[in-house]
Each structure stands twice: as structure tokens, then as C-alpha cells.
Design a protein that fits this description.
Layout lengths: L23 E4 L1 H9 L10 H8 L5 E6 L2 H8 L4 H11 L5 E5 L12 H13 L4 E4 L10 H9 L3 E7 L14 H13 L4 E6 L6 H14 L4 E5 L6 H10 L4 E4 L13 H8 L10 H15 L17 H6 L3 H13 L6 H14 L9 H15 L11 H8 L11 H7 L22 H8 L6 H9 L1 H11 L14 H15 L18 E7 L2 E7 L9 E4 L39 E4 L4 E6 L6 E2 L4 E7 L2 E6 L4 E6 L6 E2 L4 E5 L1
Parallel strand pairs: 1-2, 1-8, 2-3, 3-4, 4-5, 5-6, 6-7, 7-8
Antiparallel strand pairs: 9-10, 10-11, 12-19, 13-15, 13-18, 14-17, 15-16, 17-19
Helix pairs in contact: 2-11, 5-6, 5-19, 7-8, 8-9, 13-15, 14-15, 16-17, 18-19, 19-20
The protein binds cobalt (II) ion.
Length: 660
């Protein structure tokens, strides 16, 4: 046993004597846990049944907010993110709350202006946030300046993160080595950090790298060191133990039902492993079991359909092979699947390190993981042998301009030059703190949203999420009907769904008796929606028994793929399928169609009907995988029709505009 972990006495009871140096634990179940396993879909009403019990465990803090929760809640759950904080505070009175703050990106995906950053932190503190775990995707701490000033002004705890990333399988190399991390820790201590978190979002940290790293950090700075290491690769429980031996102060875990896969190691085995040592957590294992029982029986059945159980293995070997976050890899797979290009995955794995290197060897964490991931997919799908970076996303252009901060190594000059050609802010990249070039944005947001934002909290939500934020505020204030897809489901709903799935699995929904008659001309097809799944049901009213055949998730035929730079001129009368579209696609005007090269959401049209456009002019901005893509006119002409509205979801191949 290491010098740092000593056995004292073996006590099982929770009245055992306190350890000399108890390990502190932060619980992530209510944020990173469901973000990692259940697509961040956890509802506040499903946190309340365990909230008071969790408050009794003795956690150093409970993570309740931030990261993707703010986005997901208003977009998919019809929940006001601010209200969650106030509600949970009524049940969790002793344990501090922690949130994940993306520094100047707040809880969105770009750098926001200082006025919005001050306002957001101020309101988060007022609504009940205690610990601001702050990270910047580039580890550029100039992006901390504004939020830290407000965290301190609000009298709250500033936890500074160092994003842990590698360019090779183990710690070391030219960029991300021990010196790099020690240097970053000293920077954070000088900025007034109360604690430092090493944020290993991809689960890349090997146990024998954790030991020297934590030792070095403990020697270099005087403030507590906190380790956040995802399970994804399978190393984290070993990494935790070596970090504990090296003297780490705080470790992140989750309750068992939220554990493993791309989430975190469970707390219960760690409590048992440390029992009776000088790092004993002091937690009552029976209390943890009681919480698990409630979660397992009453809560998680509502979420289990979101669990990615396509694989039997709970460990992602790809992470060990590619040193990239699991969430990013699953996004890539989903994106390719939606575009019918899953066969390109190996090319994507090959292209990814090249794109990352071109973009300055940046760490891969939200939002840089999406930026690198989406650009990689764009390159694989759209590049030709004689032209790379054919379709550059708006976010890559911003990165090349310096809007995200300073990259670890310089960006590839050729890529940078191409990205900044005709870039509206200028073709010369900046070197100052990014937010210095951003105009204040709260007043402008207020003007746009008007009275629909009843208070500062509404306004801050809208300012970060103009399209989905407006939709949410319309639901919130009864200006638009709340769609069924964002409503909660009950345990009874789950039981019904399970019964249906069971039937389907037993073949009872599709099996036809041998004496089934031929389908007649009169057969009619109905779309039947059960929760979020839909079934294609054929009903034939003519003679004999009614025939019911079911086919799950019948996909509409996809049109040939088309890119904005290589459009397929098609008669507008050829109706494009748009199975997820809320509006009807163009079908009445003749001309050349601008097709959606990928499924996504229309952010806005930059050209109106009647506007003259030249080939290459941006007509519409399409958000796909949270990245904005400028889609350009495939030819010269006049815009005859814009077929969708801001906020509409469109399928790949949907006709967005008609130009003639
Ligand atoms: Co995390």
C-alpha cells in the first residue's frame, strides 16, 4: 500500500471514526451522469424523489446544472433551466451546488460578449449556484477573466479547470506534458482559483500518468486538486485509486444507475475500497443503496430507451485507439448514419487527427470536439482529391479568426487563409482576448425578443439560444401550443411501450397468418405515433379480416445526395421528401433547388423571396450537430421561394429554396 493510503481499522458501520484525510466526493448524477448516458434528458420531477436523501450522504458538492442541461431543458423538455436551480434548492439545503460553466461560452457554443457573461453568472449565483466549475476548451484563461470577476463579486467558489488532452497514447510529447499542466495550474492559482479540477472528459488519463500528474500539481500549488475522469475507456477506477494514493483531494463519481459507459465510475465501490483507510469517505453505503433502489425502480425505467445499448461492451476501445471523447465519437457515428455514410467511419478516424492538427492541436471538449468533428465529416464527405476544406463551417472560421482564443500550436496557415476569405469580421486573425472584439449583446437581444422575455432570466436564455429560446418562451407564456414530443412520460406510458416492444420482439406485430388475403387496391396507410416512435400501419377495409401490418420507423426514400457547391438542378415539381419537416417543402415553383446537404434546423434565411443572388452567395444558415453551416446559391438568379421558417427541422435533401 502506498505511503498516502494507510489502513486504520475495519469498521463497516457508518458511526466508524473519521479518517485523517477523508477523500471528498462530488456527485455528478444529476448533470454529467444523465448528460453522458441519457442525452441530458433528466427532468427535474425525476430528481426530486432522491434529492433529500442525496443531501444526507455527505457529498462535497452535487453537480446540478450547466453543461448541456441549459440547452436540452428548454429545447427538448419544455423546462425553464433557472427554475430547476430554485426547485432543487428547496430539497438540497446542506450540500453546495456545482455547475459546469464553459467560461466565455457560458452554457452555449460560442464566445458571448462580456455584458451577457456578467449577467449570466450574476443570475446563476442569485438563483442558487455555489461552485462555478469553469473551463475553456482551449485552456486559454483570458476567457476566464470576465466570469471569474463576477464569480468573485457574487462571493462564490471559483473552480478552475485544466482540460486534459493528449496527442499520443500517454502523457508527454511536445504539447501536452507535465510542464504544460503544472504551468496551467499555477496560472489558475494566480487568478484566484479556490480549487483546481483536472477535467479528463474523454477518460484518457492512465493510472500511471495520474500518479505523477497529481503529485506534481500538489507540489506546485497550495489549493485542493479535484479529478474529473470519465469512465469511457475503462481506466478511471484504476486512475482514481492512483490519484488518491498521490494525494488528490476531491474525486467525481455518480450513483450506480448513472455509472460507467461514457459516464463516470460509481461511488459505491470506491466507498467500500477506501473503508477503514485514512482516505475513508465516511459515507453510509446503506443510504446509497436506498437511493439506488428508488432510481432503479421509479426513475430510470423512463429513461432506459435513451441508453445506447447497441453494444454489449461498456468500454469504448476506440477512445484508447483515437484519444478522442466517446461523446464525440458517437456524434460522428450518428451524423454519418443520418447522412447514409456510415461506411465512411474509417476515413473519418483517419481525417480527424489531421483536422485537429490543422486547427492547432486543440483539446477536444465542447465546443471544440463538435467543431473538429463536424469539419472532419464535412471534409470526408465533400472534399475532392484536388481541394481540401471545401465546406468550412462558420465555427471553424471563427476559430481561425481567433474568436475562441489561442490554440496550443499555431493553426495551419493555408487552412486559416482559406477559412478567412471574405470572413465578415476581417481576413486578418486577432490576437487579443476574444470577447474584446464582441459588441455588447443584451440590449440587441432585448430589442429582438421584446416583451416575450418577462425578466432578465428569460432574456439571458434567449440571448444564448435565439431560435429554440424564442420557441420555449412562446410555450412558457402560452403563445404557442406545447408539442407532445417535449412532454414527460409516466411509468404507465413506459409499461405500455414495453408491452408493445415485447410484442414486436415476439413477432406478434408483423406475423401474418398463412391464409392472409392479398392486399386490395383499397389499402390505406396510416402513420401511428406511440410516444416518439412511429409505425406505418396499413388498413384494408375490403372484405375478410382486417390486415394489420406494422413496420417500424419506415424511412422515406432519400434523394441523391447533393452538396451546395455541386447542386443537382432538379425541377421544383419533383417533391423532396422531408419526413421530419414541420413545413412543406417547395413544390410549386420552377427553378433550381437549394437542397439541405444534411439533416438540421433552419437558423435563418439571409435572402428573401425576390432577392437577386449570385452563385456562391449565402442563402440560408442550417444548424446541424450544433454547428452553423452557410448554404450558398447553386446558381445565379432570383429567390422564388424559401420553403421553411426559422426553427424548422429539415431532412437531408429537403428543398430549402427555389432559385430561378
Ligand atoms: Co464530464
Amino acid at each position: 500500500m502506498s505511503d498516502n493510503v494507510k489502513m486504520t481499522a475495519m469498521h463497516y458501520d457508518n458511526d466508524r471514526p473519521q479518517a485523517d484525510n477523508p477523500l471528498k466526493i462530488m456527485d455528478l448524477s444529476l448533470r454529467d451522469g444523465h448528460q453522458s448516458l441519457f442525452a441530458t434528458r433528466g427532468r427535474t420531477e425525476d430528481m426530486i424523489p432522491v434529492a433529500e436523501l442525496m443531501d444526507e450522504v455527505g457529498f462535497w458538492a452535487i453537480e446540478t446544472w450547466g453543461g448541456a442541461t441549459f440547452d436540452t431543458m428548454h429545447r427538448f423538455l419544455n423546462e425553464d433551466p433557472w427554475q430547476r436551480l430554485r426547485t432543487l434548492k428547496r430539497y438540497i439545503k446542506k450540500t453546495p451546488f456545482s455547475m459546469l460553466l464553459r467560461a466565455q461560452n457560458l452554457v452555449g457554443y460560442r464566445n458571448y460578449a462580456d455584458d451577457l457573461a456578467y449577467a449570466f453568472v450574476d443570475r446563476a449565483a442569485e438563483n442558487g449556484m455555489d461552485i462555478f466549475r469553469t473551463f475553456d476548451a482551449l485552456n486559454d484563461y483570458r476567457n476566464f477573466e470576465t466570469v471569474v470577476e463576477q464569480i468573485k463579486k457574487s462571493g462564490k467558489h471559483f473552480q478552475g479547470c485544466i482540460c486534459y488532452t493528449l496527442t499520443e497514447p500517454r502523457l508527454g510529447g511536445d504539447v501536452y506534458n507535465l510542464d504544460y499542466y503544472v504551468g496551467k495550474a499555477k496560472e489558475l492559482e494566480n487568478m484566484g482559483a479556490d480549487t483546481i479540477c483536472v477535467k479528463d472528459m474523454a477518460g484518457l488519463m492512465a493510472p500511471y500518468d495520474a500518479y505523477p500528474l497529481i503529485k506534481a500539481l500538489k507540489e506546485a500549488v497550495g489549493i485542493p486538486i479535484h479529478l474529473h475522469s470519465h469512465f469511457t475507456s475503462g481506466m478511471s477506477p484504476m486512475t482514481h485509486l492512483k490519484a488518491i494514493e498521490a494525494g488528490v483531494d476531491i474525486i467525481d463519481t455518480v450513483l450506480t444507475p448513472y455509472a460507467y459507459r461514457t459516464s463516470h465510475a460509481a461511488v459505491e465501490p470506491l466507498v467500500m475500497a477506501l473503508l477503514g483507510t485514512n482516505r475513508d469517505t465516511g459515507f453510509d453505503i446503506r443510504r446509497l443503496a436506498e437511493i439506488n433502489e428508488i432510481l432503479e425502480k421509479k426513475i430510470l425505467p423512463k429513461y432506459k430507451h435513451l441508453l445506447d445499448d447497441s453494444k454489449v461492451s461498456i468500454i469504448d476501445i476506440n477512445v484508447l485507439l483515437h484519444q478522442t471523447p466517446g461523446g464525440m465519437l458517437s456524434n460522428l457515428v450518428n451524423q454519418l448514419r443520418e447522412m447514409d455514410a456510415l461506411d465512411k467511419i474509417d476515413e473519418v478516424y483517419k481525417e480527424l487527427p489531421r483536422v485537429r492538427k490543422d486547427l492547432g492541436q486543440i483539446p477536444l471538449v465542447t465546443p471544440t470536439s463538435q467543431i473538429v468533428g463536424v469539419q472532419t465529416v464535412n471534409n470526408v464527405l465533400h472534399d475532392t482529391p484536388d481541394e481540401r476544406y471545401k465546406m468550412i463551417t462558420g465555427q471553424v472560421k471563427d476559430l481561425c479568426y481567433g474568436l475562441y482564443g489561442k490554440t496550443a500550436v499555431p493553426i495551419n496557415e493555408e487552412v486559416q487563409k482559406k477559412a478567412l476569405k471574405n470572413y465578415p469580421r476581417g481576413e486578418e486573425p486577432i490576437t487579443c482576448r476574444p470577447a474584446e472584439v464582441l459588441e455588447p449583446e443584451l440590449d440587441k437581444a432585448k430589442e429582438e425578443i421584446g416583451d416575450l422575455a418577462a425578466d432578465q432570466d428569460d432574456l439571458i436564455l434567449y440571448a444564448q439560444f435565439p431560435v429554440t429560446g424564442r420557441k420555449f418562451l412562446e410555450w412558457k407564456y402560452g403563445k404557442a401550443p406545447v408539442p407532445d414530443s417535449v412532454k414527460p412520460i409516466s411509468l404507465e406510458d413506459v409499461a405500455k411501450r414495453d408491452a408493445l416492444i415485447k410484442k414486436a420482439k415476439e413477432g406478434k406485430l408483423i406475423e401474418r397468418k398463412p391464409d392472409t388475403p392479398e392486399k386490395s387496391e383499397a389499402v390505406r396507410t396510416f402513420n401511428v405515433f406511440v410516444d416518439n416512435e412511429y409505425f406505418n400501419v396499413e388498413v384494408d377495409p375490403v372484405g375478410g379480416p382486417t390486415v394489420v401490418g406494422m413496420q417500424q420507423n419506415a424511412a422515406a426514400p432519400q434523394p441523391a445526395s447533393a452538396t451546395p457547391s455541386a447542386p443537382q438542378p432538379a425541377p421544383a415539381a419533383a417533391k423532396q421528401p422531408a419526413q421530419t419537416a414541420e413545413a412543406q417543402p417547395a413544390s410549386s415553383k420552377s427553378g433550381t433547388l437549394l437542397l439541405a446537404p444534411m439533416p438540421g434546423m433552419v437558423v435563418k434565411y439571409l435572402k428573401n423571396v425576390g432577392d437577386t443572388v449570385s452563385k456562391g452567395d449565402t442563402v440560408v444558415i442550417l444548424e446541424a450537430m450544433k454547428m452553423e453551416n452557410a448554404l450558398v446559391a447553386p446558381c445565379d438568379g432570383v429567390v422564388k421561394e424559401n420553403s421553411f421558417s426559422s426553427g424548422d427541422t429539415v431532412a437531408k435533401g429537403a428543398a430549402l429554396s427555389v432559385i430561378g
